Amino acid sequence: MNDKELSRRKFIQKTSLVAAGTVAGVLASRQPALGKTDQSAAKKTLCYNENMEYRRLGKTGLWISAVCLGGHWKRVNVMNQDFDKNRHDVVSRCMDVGINYIDACWDNEVKAYSKALAGRRDKIYLALSHGAKEPRNEEFRTAKKLLESLDELLRESDQEYTDLWRITCHEPGGTHSFNTSCEIVEALEKAKKQGKARFIGFSSHDRRWIKFMIEYFPQIEVVLFPYTAKSKEMPEDSVFDALKKCDVGAFGIKPFASNSLFKGSSAPDDPNAEEDDRCARLAIRYILCNPHIMPIPGLISIHQVDNVAKAVKERRELDVAEAEKLRQLMDRTWARLPANYRWLKNWEYV
Q1: Could you tell me the strand order of the sheet in which 249-253 lies?
Q2: pLDDT at 173
């Protein structure tokens, strides 16, 4: 280990000890079971709608809709609508039904949603990341370069701050050194102290590294990782064990397995549209059975927004017939995964 890594270790260990004491106090004050107090807090959240379920996002204290809006807009080309109008209308419907969080992880997404939120930025939580200029790129594995990337993205999207800076990390995992982990946390902490990020976290496809980051750095408040309708908690040493212990919030990416869940094209007039809607709701219901995660599907139409909102209101637990249908559906989904998404199979146990 070189001198820089040693100094970085000392820096992080020092700040971690301070943060650990703070977190311990916060956790001690948040032990009461869910009740009227929590329900009262949820009602004060952005875009509150009595027909939407809200979940506490770990130690951030935010109450987030059980289903959120993912930044990707795959298949949006099937919509007979101007792109900017499409994004504006989808965001508006999300706000109407009580969806109060948007996750944008690439600069084009951040710019598109910033534009869609013009004049109402304070009405919904917006998370951002500059995926191409973060640790996936070797040039952006220092705190200095990461902060430069954040400044650039905020400036180009005309944003003064982000509700959550969720740095997009390298995948498949196993490539980050301890030093890179420390650089990431240093950048996140500085951004928060400077008022550029209200809350901080990261996304990754590396289960072991995610667990390490959660347990080693109490500064981490939110994580994002794959969670499909085939995912479940590992019996032992689960990521969810670390989430609960450290009070870290979690979002599930790829809930529809990059659209491999569906037969149709997602066009409104597609002959498979009705069946695909049922499949989407079944997948969301299954995922929501885990109270510690919120799925963030990419939604390309007002209809799709209404469909996931409907899933939240439907009976949560699956009956025997539904469970069997979901099993068959996910077996088909796994078989349909394109080559560049077969890594999702590694996320059956989390």
Answers
A1: 69-70, 101-104, 125-128, 162-168, 197-203, 222-226, 249-253, 294-295
A2: 54
**Residue 17, pLDDT above cutoff 70:** no
Query: What global pTM score does this model have?
Result: 0.89
Burial class (CB in 10 A: 0-12, 13-18, 19+), 181: buried
The model's confidence at residue 32, banded by pLDDT at 50, 70 and 90, is: very low
In the chain, which ranges are continuous DSSP H helix? 3-28, 36-42, 83-97, 107-116, 143-156, 178-193, 207-216, 239-246, 273-288, 302-313, 320-336
List pLDDT tens digits, range 70-95: 999 999 999 999 999 999 999 999 99
Instruction: State the angle between helix axes of 207-216 and 178-193 in degrees (0 to 180), rounded to the nearest 10.
Output: 50
CA angle 102, 44, 94 (to 5 degrees): 30
Q: What is the residue-averaged pLDDT of the chain? A: 90
Residue 246 DSSP class: H
Nearest to 94 by CA among 166, 40, 46, 55: 46
CB 204 within 8 A of CB 223: yes
Q: Kindly state the tokens that stand for 27.
A: 């956790």
Amino acid at 219: Q
Sign of the four-CA dihedral 232, 42, 307, 167: negative
Mean pLDDT, range 117-139, rounded to an integer? 96
Burial 119-129 (b: 16+ CB within 10 A, else e): eebeebbbbbb
* DSSP string over 122-156: GGSEEEE--GGGSTTSGGG-SHHHHHHHHHHHHHH
Q: Please tell me the distance from the alpha carbon of residue 217 to that of residue 219, in angstroms, as a whole number.
A: 5
Query: Which of 300, 314, 316, 308 has the alpha carbon at shortest distance from 97?
Result: 308
Assigned architecture for domain 52-347: Alpha-Beta Barrel (3.20)
Helices and strands (DSSP H and E) totals, the chain: 11, 10
| Other CB atoms within 10 A of residue 311 CB | 23
Tens of pLDDT, residue by residue over 272-329, are 999 999 999 999 999 999 999 999 999 999 999 999 999 999 999 999 999 999 999 9
Beta bridge mates, 314: none
Radius of gyration of the chain, Cα coordinates, nearest whole angstrom: 20
